[in-house]
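task queued by scheduler; priority normal; single chain, no ligands, no partner chains; default sampling; output format set to structure tokens
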Amino acid sequence: FTVLYAEEKAYLDSWSFVKDNLKRRSLCERFIDHWSNVRFKEYVQWLAKELDSIAEQLSEKQKAHLESLYRWTAEYECLFWEMPYK
């Protein structure tokens, strides 16, 4: 669940940034609209809420493991987004 949230949050944040900074029409508009629309944002917010609820029941060691999974996923998402530029 942590990895799913991290990945979906990365897509929401990345495509929302593109949408907010787009100066002209783009061939990526279909992707922009899909990953930055209100329904997707609500889905990511729901994931966050559910993950918070799950985490409340965990030990500190388990929470630390979730944090490492989140960071690991974020690192790979950053590497993924760097690929188009290289």
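post-processing summary
- The CA atoms of residues 1 and 56 lie 14 Å apart.
- The chain has a mean pLDDT of 93.
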